[in-house]
Design brief:
five-stranded mixed sheet; binds adenosine-5'-triphosphate; seven-stranded mixed sheet; Herpes Virus-1; 18 helices; single chain; Rossmann fold; about 25% strand
Length: about 500
């Protein structure tokens, strides 16, 4: 089976078993928005707890907050999102396809360049050893014509981008006779600036612009609360603030299931450090975060660092932790050294002093920040895509099993009476009542035991506990293990301990 087919099956599996549903499905869905079902929400909550505990409980100098999604509009001016979180968009009226105007022009320039290079290669063949490329480029009429076209369009594009001149962007596309690669027509709409932030209105104060935004990242809620937390928590640098929450981006091209959504969840931690020490912390957080991922046991070879080739203007170091999804290595988490860009800008725009008084140095400064930012939904997808297996069994049947790390599995144990009579359901319910305070368990008495095992394999339940007639006499049950399918007879009184050994989150936390 190709990776593409596996991914398709996984997507269908997520729906069939109540992990993920398309949003508003009965109305044909809403593009790139998803709902988490009864099992999805359990897995998601377990991932959140794993991340939260690894940050807030394991580090005495990291605390958590939960800031609002709506923030003062000035926040997004200071952060640069209002001005720079934009793409210039154009639609082809026939194919209804949407493009970035600058990318269309760049593709056209690349074609001109290719044309010139071909002409040069022709000349090289014709003149052999006597070929002088410089002279050829300076005199050949075909090359000169393309070069003049290239220079003119390039100069116009740079100017239009710098001047933010959208009409001129469109005119360039018209003048260069650029056609839509799908429809082949030149029937273009106007160029519009497309900001990736969703906006809405606050209240209805007439005459006033009450535009506010749905946050495109959770980080700004941390920056604006820096002083609140530092002062009330008596935090000393270095220290961190962690947060889990929703973020919204009006992505132009949203695809690949929950990999790129318009509403998603981030788990971010901003670590405030003394200027000059940021590279040391950047290195440390890279290592710690990779360990966090590896502890889940999805396969060490599935992760790699990808350093950014081009740094954002505010960053002095940035790397992505990439994961090998079924569609290739893609960003799962970003680790950025953001200098004092955000706190500095909030200080400037708000007019408030946002500084830390360092008692050891006896001076005040704007701290530097190293951030770790992971998409919760992408982490969910990483876990499910490596857990999903279609296994051929010895008896010729196949089973679908989700080998989700036991600590994160949505259901920890299933309690199954062998038959629906003779007091077995009552005994099974007693076991449910004993376990339910500690673990999310399922009771299932329908269908053959084999079918029930398959159902639990398919949702990743690490343990099936079967109650049979002997259980009524000897107070023992059969435990079946998901991954090995091995079975073992254990005392009911030892069940809790057997389960705890495998599913306790502490197991993962200790591995980091
Ligand atoms: P990409 O390059 O994939 O668009 P990004 O570099 O814009 O991502 P960041 O702004 O660094 O992403 O956000 C941090 C993390 O948030 C990402 O590593 C990713 O896991 C998650 N994330 C970002 N955009 C989305 C999205 N549209 N859907 C789901 N998760 C997202």
């Amino acid at each position: 089976m190709t990776q593409e087919e596996v991914f398709k099956n996984l997507t269908a599996h997520c729906k069939e078993y109540g992990f993920i549903f398309q949003s508003s499905e009965i109305y044909d869905g809403l593009s790139a928005v998803y709902d988490y079902g009864q099992l999805g929400v359990e897995l998601k909550n377990n991932i959140k707890k794993y991340w939260w505990d690894s940050m807030v409980r394991l580090h005495e100098n990291i605390v958590g907050i939960d800031s609002a999604i709506f923030m003062h509009p000035k926040v997004w001016e200071a952060s640069g999102h209002v001005g720079a979180f934009n793409d210039p968009l154009i639609d082809n009226k026939d194919s209804k396809k949407r493009y970035r105007a600058d990318v269309l022009i760049e593709d056209y320039l690349a074609k001109l360049e290719e044309k010139m290079n071909k002409e040069v290669e022709k000349g090289r063949k014709r003149f052999g050893d006597a070929f002088n490329e410089e002279q050829f480029r300076a005199t050949n009429p075909n090359v000169l014509r393309s070069k003049a076209q290239y220079d003119a369009i390039h100069a116009r594009m740079v100017k239009a981008l710098n001047d933010n001149d959208l009409n001129e962007m469109r005119q360039i596309i018209v003048d260069a006779e650029i056609a839509c690669p799908i429809s082949g027509t030149k029937n273009w709409t106007e160029v519009r600036q497309f900001n990736l932030m969703f906006s809405t209105q606050l209240g209805n104060i007439s005459g006033e612009d009450g535009t506010i935004y749905l946050r495109p990242e959770t980080a700004q809620g941390i920056f604006v609360n820096f002083l609140n937390v530092q002062k009330t928590g008596r935090m000393k640098i270095p220290f961190g603030i962690a947060q889990i929450g929703k973020a919204f981006r009006n992505e132009i091209v949203a695809r690949q299931f929950i990999f790129r959504m318009r509403e998603f969840e981030q788990m971010e931690m901003q670590f405030f450090v003394q200027p000059g020490s940021e590279m040391e912390w950047f290195k440390k957080w890279k290592e710690l975060r990779l360990n966090w991922h590896k502890a889940m046991g999805l396969g060490d070879e599935k992760y790699r660092f990808h350093d950014h080739d081009k740094l954002a203007h505010y960053a002095n170091a940035a790397t992505d932790i990439e994961f090998e999804f079924p569609f290739g290595f893609k960003e799962l988490e970003g680790i950025h050294s953001r200098t004092d860009f955000d706190l500095g800008n909030h200080q400037r725009v708000s007019g408030r002093k946002i500084q830390y008084f360092d008692p050891e140095k006896n001076e005040s400064y704007v701290p530097y920040v190293v951030e770790t930012s992971i998409g919760l939904d992408r982490c969910f997808l990483a876990i499910l895509s490596s857990a999903y297996k279609e296994e051929a069994l010895e008896n010729g049947e196949t089973r679908v099993v989700l080998s989700i790390p036991a600590e994160l599995a949505p259901v920890k144990a299933a309690v199954l009476p062998l038959v629906k009579k003779d007091g077995l359901p009552e005994k099974a319910q007693e076991i449910m009542d004993m376990l339910k305070f500690d673990y999310n368990c399922q009771y299932d008495e329908k269908d053959s035991i084999g079918k029930r095992y398959r159902r639990q394999d398919a949702i990743g339940t690490p343990f099936c506990i079967t109650v049979d007639h002997d259980s009524l006499v000897d107070n023992k049950v059969t435990i079946r293990y998901r991954d090995t399918m091995e079975q073992e007879r254990v005392d009911i009184s030892s069940l809790k301990a057997v389960i705890a050994e495998k599913v306790d989150l502490v197991n993962l936390l200790k591995k980091i």
